[in-house]
Amino acid sequence: MTGRITGTGSWVPEHILDNNELSNMVDTSDQWIRERTGVERRHIVWQETTARMAAKAAQRALEQAQVDPEEVDLILVATISGNEILPCTACSVQEMLGAVRATCFDLNSACTGFLFALNTAQAYLNSGIYRNALVIGAESLSNLTNWKDRGTCILFGDGAGAVFLEADEKSRYAQVTHSEGEKGRALTCSSRNQKQYVEHPDAQETYMEMDGREVFKFAVSCVPQVIRELLEKEKLSGEEIRFYILHQANIRIIQSVAKRLGEAEEKFPVNIQEYGNTSGASVPILLDELNRKGCFKAGDKLVLAAFGAGLSYGASLLEW
Ligand code: ACO
Asked: Which of 199, 206, 245, 279 pairs with 38 at a CA distance of 20 to 30 A?
């Protein structure tokens, strides 16, 4: 038994910050950002919260699946940027939706978060503990971004994406995942929850810090590797895959993965130009856009793949 996706949804803030505006904030240019990353603009939270975006994306997924919130068994939110530590974002989403029966919790695995949450939900459905699940990736990364650091602030954006899964005996799902904690220093964000009184009475806000070149090198080798592992495990060839839906971190990473796999770039849809890197939200936002454009037909095999802080990475196979 695995979960079939019966609804998708996404939601991004209205406020847009484009590369030209960003060039007035740090020493960079529209041309540099486009050429080095593929990003043209990003959506930034104004009045919105991570939970509110997550709930809006989830509501759209439920509407498409034609399911009432009271029928939802499990709500998982992948996020590193909930506005509150307590309650967890998933419980706030539950309240906003009125999903009174659901069990709710958050999962923190940065950009691989949505994929790991999807795997977790699949395990619950596979065991028979739950019959359905809402899996959401939602981020307000702009709150964790150092807007004076041109090495990171050009990359990130805010938004949310969601899928609704229903247990189905005929659907197919497989996964391969890895974590390499010894490489974790390449991408960090210190907790704002340290011993402020005893050790850091003058502590400043903390932000995401990244060794961009290290993360880039890691991504272009680990993503093709984990996709190959998945295809071998499932005895599938690349030709059998309709789309590779990759975490939108940098267009050059996506192009490099396509090349290393010997696959046409057309099979790797991108929307990074519009949203930047929205971490755990990037894969479900792209999935929802493609679904609503009618790009998938029944039986299509999709590979989802992501990498990120941890460092962690993974790939999943699903049949539409
Ligand atoms: N504008 C103009 N120049 C810049 C900028 C900028 N925004 N940023 C860096 N530069 C300069 C550097 O100072 C350097 O100048 P120098 O040659 O005089 O020293 C030059 O551009 C090249 O710098 P690099 O860091 O080598 O640039 P690179 O091509 O690697 O691009 C980038 C940097 C975009 C950050 C890239 O390394 C990258 O995308 N890395 C992966 C990031 C990623 O995928 N993160 C995932 C996060 S996942 C998560 O869990 C949140």
From this structure: 206
Listing DSSP states for 280-300 in one string gives GGHHHHHHHHHHHTT---TT-
- The dihedral built from the CA positions of residue 114, 88, 9 and 172, taken in this order, carries a sign that is positive
- Nearest-5° Cα angle at 134, 132 to 135: 125
Cα–Cα distance for residue pair 169/99, rounded to 1 Å: 25
Of the residues 88, 91, 104, 111, which is catalytic? Answer: 111
| pLDDT, tens digit (0-9, with 9 covering 90-100), for 94-136 | 999 999 999 999 999 999 999 999 999 999 999 999 999 999 9
Report pLDDT for 88: 97
Interface confidence (ipTM) of the complex: 0.92
pTM: 0.95
Instruction: Quote the ligand 1 centre to 91 CA distance (angstroms).
Output: 36
Supply the Cα-derived Rg of the chain in whole angstroms: 19
Handedness of CA 61, 63, 66, 67 (dihedral sign): positive
The protein residue whose alpha carbon is closest to atom 6 in ligand 1 is 28
Nearest 5 degrees, angle CA 286-CA 291-CA 295? 105
Q: What is the DSSP string of 81-115?
A: --S-SSS-HHHHHHHHHT-TT-EEEEE--GGGHHH
**Ligand 1, atom 11: nearest CA belongs to which residue?**
151
pLDDT digits (tens, 9 = 90+) for 67-83: 999 999 999 999 999 99
- The burial of 172, by beta-carbon neighbours within 10 Å (0-12 exposed, 13-18 middle, 19 or more buried), is given as middle
Query: Which ranges constitute the DSSP H helices of 107-250?
Result: 113-127, 212-233
Residue 28 CA: nearest ligand 1 atom is 1
